[in-house]
Amino acid sequence: MNRIGDVITAHGLRRTYGHGKDAFEAVKGVDLWVVEGEVFALLGTNGAGKTSTLDMLEGLAAPSSGAVEVFGLDPRRDREQVRAQVGIMLQSGGLPAELTVRETLEMWRGTCTNPTTADIVLEQVDLVDRADVRVGSLSGGEQRRVDMACALLGQPRLLFLDEPTTGLDPESRRGTWRLLADLKASGVTMVLTTHYLDEAEALADRIAIMHKGEIVRTGTLREIVDDHPARIVFDHPGLPLPHLRDANIDAQARVTVSTYDLQGHLFALLDWAREHGVLLSGLEARAASLESVFLDIASESADASAATKELIGASR
Questions:
Q1: What's the number of CA atoms in the CB half-sphere (13 Å) around residue 211?
Q2: How does pLDDT run across 151-160, given as a tens digit for each residue?
Q3: In whole angstroms, what is the distance from residue 167 CA to residue 173 CA?
Q4: pLDDT at site 133
Q5: DSSP letter string over 145-185?
Q6: Domain locations in the chain?
Q7: CATH 3.40.50.300 fits 6-225, yes or no
């Protein structure tokens, strides 16, 4: 099942909670792969199934159906072999509050097959001056950095990062980005979940967007964005708008032009406005972005949900 160069492969992953009429399918037949040395970002709206998917990839939960391999092994059946090569940073570490940072790392170090030293990871996560402070006295952002340090202690070849910069101030976030870039340069493979789209843009080689248990977009940032229209937005000038070939025009009080030819259609609009002596108030031209793709996916779901409710209401 594992392709040459793949660290992770997953086929037909499903995860169902409950039984019978109360069953809820959180993950619905996900296929994905992660190549050695890449950063793979798994994004999604709340409740999209990211954490359930991550739990299966990490071997923390068994798929209801489907299969996953990590380093060509089953992460549950071959847990001892896989775990020695993997670092995991969960959303909430749950570390003992009464231990100091150094004591915590030394305790965690004892669980690793091939650990580095506490001093090295303290330097990596910029917590050297907080080594003798109790974990319970740290800020939320500092505790996240302790979680990161624990994930790095075993010198992993594969690193799972679940919302790694939540609670960090902007400076600490950038510091974490630099650390992850250094790890990638050293050959570490990473699977990242994050609610910060700029983080995925800055770090990820490939991105998968999950929605309602399924992967609905996948590829490099450029591949995802190029498959999505740009937008030109302006206040309606109060006269008939020009025809823009292959563009979709939503002519409300605030006009939105969706286009795959941003430059050409923007020039055409400006030429038309000049010829007619029209001022295009509030003019904005926005290239497609990961944010616009993500918001459209969420919007499509909200529209579909509203339409379903309307149909149900009409049938009663």
A1: 15
A2: 999 999 999 9
A3: 9
A4: 95
A5: HHHHHHHHTT--SEEEEESTTTT--HHHHHHHHHHHHHHHH
A6: 6-225, 229-286
A7: yes
